[in-house]
Design a protein that fits this description.
The complex is a heterodimer of chains A (189) and B (568).
Chain A (H helix, E strand, L loop, with lengths): L14 H30 L3 H5 L4 H26 L3 H31 L9 H31 L5 H26 L2
Chain B lengths: L21 H5 L5 H31 L13 H36 L8 H23 L19 H4 L2 H31 L12 H32 L13 H35 L6 H14 L15 H29 L8 H24 L1 H7 L3 H31 L5 H27 L18 H34 L56
Helix pairs in contact in B: 2-3, 2-4, 2-15, 3-6, 3-7, 3-8, 3-13, 4-6, 6-7, 7-8, 7-9, 8-11, 8-13, 9-10, 10-11, 11-13, 11-14, 13-14, 14-15
Classes of the chains: A mainly alpha (189), B mainly alpha (568).
Bound molecules: protoporphyrin IX containing FE (HEM) and copper (II) ion (CU).
Amino acid sequence: MKPIATTRSSMNIATGKLAVWWVLVSEIVIFGGVLGSYIMNRIAHVEWGEQASHTNTWAGAFNTFVLLTSSLFAVLAHQAAEKHDGKKAAQYLYYTCFGGLIFLIVKSFEWAHEIREGFVIQSGGFWGYYYVAAGLHGFHVLAGMLVMLWVADSAKKNQDLHRVENVGLYWHFVDIVWIFLFPLLYIAK
Amino acid sequence: MANHHDTHDHHDGAHAHHDEGWFKKYFWSTDHKIIGFQYMFTGMLLALLGAFMAYVFRMQLAFPGQAVPGWGVVSPGQYNMLITNHGSIMIFWVAMPVLIAGFGNYIIPLMIGADDMVFPRLNRLSYQLFFVSVLLLIASLVVQNGGFGGAWTAYPPLSANKDFNLTPLGSSLWLGAVAVEFVAFLLGGINFIVTAMNARAPGMKAFDVPIVVWTIVIASILFMASVGPLVAGAVMLLFDQLLGTSFFNPNRGGDPILWQHLFWFFGHPEVYVVLLPAMGIVAEVMTVFARKKLFAYKTVIYTIVATGVLSFFVWAHHQFVAGIDPRMANVFTVTTVLISIPIAEMCFVYIATLYGGSITLSTPMLWALAFMAEFMLGGVTGIYLGSSGADIFFHDTYFVVAHFHYTFFPIAIIAVMSGITYWFPKMFGRHMNDFWGKVHFWGTIIPFNGIFIPLFVLGAAGEHRRIFDYHSFPHLATPELQSLRIIATVSLVVMLAFQPVFLVNYIVSMFRGPKADKNPWKANTLEWTADSPPPHGNWAELPNCYRGPYEYSVEGRELDYWPQNEKA
Ligand code: HEM
Ligand SMILES: [Cu+2]
């Protein structure tokens, strides 16, 4: 039996959506901590620029493009859900997931290459932050994909369509984090 | 079970759960009250562990080198482990779970007139994660090479390098325990915030919400907004420990001071995370036992928010001797002194609430008054520490230890006792014994001052806080100073000796105490309109709200209270 509390809406905002916003607040400070530490260190250490020059800007740019496109699909999924078209919403969510998958594949090729070159997390300086920041982000991409598959599964049956928007919000956030990571880790050399 | 939960006046909540097994009822429950108890009892058990640790290391300080009854001779490594885990346990596994998660879970839905949290299963998961963190913590104490001994602040390089701390497993398990616990409280916090925002009783506006709910919610927001960088930092520190990275290793280009920033950016707001709920509990108790409206309710809320915002800009007052730029030290001195303004204002507001009231000195009220008096000493000594010049001397002396115990003890023990004795009739439907309650009160408060006033003196005399045996420092090993240490330790033993009074009173009253009716204190807030104890679902019919929570002694009314759910 569902408690009545779960059905109330004193603020006139759906409970699930409110919760997603608070999740994002806590995520912002987590990434804020990593990136703030990185930026302060980066300013203090000019030599990190040389280390950063080994990252593959083109791979990063391609991934940016992939993520932005996947976010577009998340928006289309939301629109379909608004029109109560669960089938279509699920379809678009699968496209979004596919974008995430490509992103992770590209990422793993990059990392494999860098590790072969000897740039590992223990190499210190820039590399520590590179792996932690991108790794934390990649972990969020993966988590988002899993949640999205689960949401798509019920959306297909036209159930819980409000979740399509919520997972989309989260996906946009993951996207925005990457928009910060890309210049900080790939462009600034 | 009938599927008519969408009708407003359903009745099966109260008796739908009778046939569930014991395990399901108490360990797998999604009922906010049970989860509140889980947090509260786990926290109280760990408080016993933390107290035992304090007893052992205080005995070592008073009678160095002698076998401690119940432990034996304390080795230097054990001493560090005991101090470290005493602090970690009392803050992360006692203050947080009892004060925020325990009371928060129990009272938020009841006070806002809801039948549960908005995410009951998330709530259960939160406790389960918390429980895992307790297991990790216990494991960290018993593994090979012993528990972590690098202080609750875990400064690197000591914490990062096993060649320095000598506890490879203990350090990593301790860090893992803290990290898992943070995740548990993040989940719980989101639940609290969204519940208070969205699940209020019909008619309950934001400014009809009792102060204690406001403070717990704002504390959850502060926690959420400050803990992120430390979560990231904990991952980095764990990598330093396990993978040999060098985020905090100065030998290889890392920066140990970075950890201090990440830690205290969380650590200082954290003191307000625990302070605010304590202030909230005290506000509820004071209004009820003074039969007066809370003075300046809205101003209190704005003040809480202001305190919360300011608390993000004071953290470096913990780092005045860490080599930060003296100009930055000046800035942080100013912000630190600034933050004492809203806190002082809250104290004045509470005094104004008491002024002219008809005060009953019941056990909860005694605890609430003691909270004000003792916390004030803690707050005032903070101003000395916040002045960067004075802190160069005071830093890492027992003056600091006395300061933060005069803040944390009132928060984690005194205010919690006030809350426990106040809500006990609601929680268990019976009364605690008032006489033994008062015996316990005096038996705790007097020795508390006996412990920590000597520590102020010792700290001012230059006693450094991380020394195992002062015999190696002749100017600190004088008989005068040693006798102060003995006074502190004896007071601690006396205080601990009085705690069984509470435990027995608590447990016996739970089963044998005189029956309590719905509203024994004649209070206004909604939890007192539910049965004592409230059934699953809290009310047969959820209440509506018609007014603010503090309408006591309203002129022209026969009764001196006016429950929030009463129509006119
Ligand atoms: C709200 C309740 C408070 C709590 C729970 C609290 C807690 C603490 C704790 C735990 C420490 C020790 C840090 C360490 O391990 O070195 C500490 C130190 C300090 N506190 Fe407080 N405090 C409170 C209020 C205040 C206030 C009101 C002020 C100033 C106006 C203040 C200023 C300081 C300063 C400057 C230090 C650093 C001392 C040092 O390490 O040298 N605190 N406090
Ligand atoms: Cu502080």
